[in-house]
Amino acid sequence: MVPEQLAYHLYSLDQQYALGIVRDGIIAYVDKLLHCAIERRASDIHLQPHEQVMVVRERIDGYLYDAQHVDRELAPLLISRIKILAHMDIAKRRLPQDGRMNVVFHAADGTDRIIDIRVSSFPTLYGEKLVLRILDQGRHLMTLAALGLDLTMQQELEALLKRPYGLFLVTGPTGCGKTTMLYAMLSSLNNRSKNMVTLEDPIEYLLPGVAQSQINVTAGFTFEVGLRALLRQDPDIIMLGEIRDKETANIAMEAALTGHLVFSTLHTNNALSAVMRLIDMGVEPFLISATLMGVLAQRLVRRLCAACKQKSTVPLGLQPVVQRQYGPLETVYQQSSCAACHHMGFKGQIGIFELLTIDQQASALIGDQDHRGLQEVCAKKGMRSMLQDGIAKIEQGITTLDEVFAVAQ
Predict the structure, then answer these.
(1) Residue range 307-312: average pLDDT?
(2) Comparing C-alpha atoms, which of 48, 42, 49, 47 is closest to residue 63?
(3) In this predicted model, what pLDDT tens digit does every residue of 207-236 receive, in sequence order?
(4) Which residues contact 76 (CB under 8 A, 6 or more apart)?
(5) Residue 107 pairs with which residues in a beta bridge?
(6) Who's near 137: CB < 8 A, 6+ residues apart?
(7) For 62-93, how does the pLDDT look when each residue is reduced to its tens digit (9 = 90+)?
(8) What distance in Å separates the CA atoms of residue 208 and residue 197, rounded to the nearest whole number?
């Protein structure tokens, strides 16, 4: 289904309460807006003003869909109510603001849970735009097995996590689930015999038993300052939200050299390019080869709805690519439509991955800056690419060719 059709199926009921701002009051309307977004597993709500209306959109499984239109005269009431809940200044409209709030979500199964919502305002030509990031602790904290790693890759990753020290990187673009993966890795190692400390910007989910710290650049608490300080906190395992510059990278590697297990993220397209990215930052190759133990690159694809997915065949134009990457693939699946997935054809997301394990041979090639040799060694050892991992998930009926080829070519 095209996005316009999906929007109709998803939000036709929402249009019935769009006038509820007047009928039931702004408080009830905002409560309904938040409840429906959480119920549909939305990760973000966008309130974007236009000349005549304010458009409310929800991001579900990585895609934005129109929810409804709010009359421009009523939009300020909606904005003010949300800003009050998020402890923001309703009189400040010309500068960006950040806030947060907690809401109680009453689930269909009768249980209640607390949902953390981060609110960001941004001035635009037609008024303030709000984006609400929904952080559902109960839904997002996952195990390694639930994130989509195949059994072989999961076992290889778990073996790396058992090492006493070293640097492990998770790479990919913004919004591909890197932080969720780091949390899953920490959760798999979390026990009372380890002192685990994180530096994050911001803290997205709370991990029991882990000392979590949030970066505050305004106060001078940067990644570099925080990392130097926490090394005096007798840590066993350190999770660094992101390696952004040479200084942070060098300190992280010094920590790994001195007997700490360090996890962090990097923005690169694949696992192999993480090595080149660190060198481009100015990190010495010998330091990388001495500390880097592995790199996991990942992307997110939408998961087909198990209730309505339909069998299909590989399009003729894609058959050579699939054959080259994976081998014969006769049956694939396509999305359909049913009430279980709100007529979207997809329900949830799953990762596709490639894992680079740095052994003695790979370490020597990194030290020699032999990138081509590193590629050849990885290929000979059977390292599975993200595209190959994605095609395997297509064969299993988990996702579609379009989803995989959109992110992994």
Answers:
(1) 93
(2) 42
(3) 888 999 999 988 999 999 999 999 999 999
(4) 127
(5) none
(6) 113, 114, 115, 116, 205, 206
(7) 999 998 899 888 899 999 999 999 999 999 99
(8) 11
Mean pLDDT of the chain: 88
Tell me the mean pLDDT in the region 105-133: 91
Q: Which SS3 state, helix, strand or coil, does residue 266 take?
A: strand
Q: Could you please report the per-residue DSSP string of 177-237?
A: SHHHHHHHHHHHH--TTS-EEEEESS--S--TT-EEEE-BGGGTB-HHHHHHHHTTS--SE
353-388 per-residue burial string, b: 16 or more CB within 10 A, e: under 16? bbbbbbeeebbebbeeeeeeebeebbeeeebbbbbb
Residue 174: what are its φ and ψ, rounded to 5°? -60, 135
- Prediction pTM value: 0.86
Sheet holding 196-200, edge to edge: 211-214, 196-200, 237-240, 261-266, 166-171, 292-304, 346-357
Helix (H) or strand (E) holding 379, with range, is helix 371-380
Give the tokens for residue 356.
Answer: 């680079």
Question: Six-digit token pair at 38?
Answer: 């959480």
pLDDT at 310: 94
Total count of residues recorded for the chain:
409
Q: Which residue has the tokens 């991992």?
A: 389
Question: Residue 222 contacts by C-beta under 8 Å, 6 or more apart in sequence?
Answer: 215
What b/e sequence results for 269-279 when a residue is b if at least 16 CB atoms lie within 10 Å of its CB, and e otherwise? ebbbbbbebbe
The answer to whether residue 4 scores a pLDDT higher than 70 is no
Tokens for 90, please give them.
Answer: 């309703």
Each residue's pLDDT tens digit, 11-50 = 444 444 444 555 568 888 999 999 999 988 899 999 999 9
The number of helix segments (H) and strand segments (E) in the chain equals 16, 15
Q: What does the alpha-carbon distance between residue 279 and residue 276 come to, in Å, rounded to a whole number?
A: 5
Closest CA to 262 of 161, 149, 155: 161
